[in-house]
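Write out the 3D structure for:
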Amino acid sequence: MNQPGTGEAPEAAHARSDSQKELAEVLRQRAAISAVLRAIANSPHDLQPIFDSIIDNTMHLCRTDWSAFRLVEEIGFRLVAFRGSPAVSGLWSPPMLREFNSFVGSLFGSKSPVHIPDLATHLERNFPGEAEREPISKVGIRTVLFVPMLRNDELIGTLSLGRHRIEPFTEKEIEVVTDFAAQAAIVLEITRRERQLREQQMQLAHANRLVTMGELSASITHEVKQPIAAARNNVIAALNFLRRNPPDLQEVSEALAAAVKDADRVDAIVGRMRALMQKASPRLDRVDMNEALREVIELTQGEALKNGISVVSQLANGLPIIAGDRVQLQQVVLNLILNAVQAMSAVTEGVRRLLVTTRQIELNDLYVGVQDTGPGVSPETLPHLFEPFYTTKPNGMGMGLTICRSIIEAHGGRLWVSACEPRGALFQFAIPARPS
């Protein structure tokens, strides 16, 4: 018998065709997972695009007319994403919650795939309640597949797929969707843990800010009392000018303007304190780094003066407006300045000087430095300085610098320390100078 023109036996050609189909299925499955991973990368703080990507790609893998994704909650299965053909969407919207003891809830609760080739026949045999039978029948779905999403053998969600026609899912399709659901469950778990970690970091950073502001409370009280006293004196002066005969309105105006200026200063100090003490989610602000530093320097000025420290700032001109979380970046600088003040408070000889600098090398990273003339950092301490719970302070928590480094790294930057001669330490961080 003659062979095909390629010289390939029919059996070999058939095997090659099967291999090509299997390869195509593997590539489609990988493409689906890649799409979900892209959704995670593009939406790290919002799960909804991830849910939508999961069901869109599930429908694409098996060419279905309808798909839903539900997550397990204490009282049932909550709908988080739904896709259907226009005909289905126009007739029916799935309920947001399916209780565990409902007919459909029992199908969702299986830890193995549930395949129903003919839904109408299945309904007749299993006698669900009329309240459930009517909407299921109205949808017009004939073949359905329920695939569990498991985490350590614990049910965390369910993918539902449906077809308008009686077209049973093949074993291969069920296997592909089951594998995809398992991979999607891993991706969701990683995302959940990352969100949980971010929440814990946010709470820890907030606690650190409260502790830091507590350390500054005495100095800030003094800073607030000064403008309040000045405003009071200016208002008294304005009243005295009004009592003159005739009233000196020019002096009254100047005294009241000075009082307003003093009140604005108090408002600015309280506003900065409030911003640093608030518990808020990470934000992406337009940050003028020099302006942010000036606000922190003013907030810590009283603490520096109390310890006999002169504060000098050398802030470069023309720095770009960057994108970042203003409060978090200010928290880093606040921690570094207070650490420097505390380090210098023990120095008995020489000048106590704090230098805050900014600079930019060409178009690359923006650098911020906080340098002190304290005792410096010993070679033994240096490798451990940014480790959690490591502290050289008698009453320190050992978390301040760890939090600072995590904040800077979350901004795509780095934080480090170097020794200065003849004494002191220089803490610097660099963040990408991306225009906001």
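The chain has a mean pLDDT of 76.
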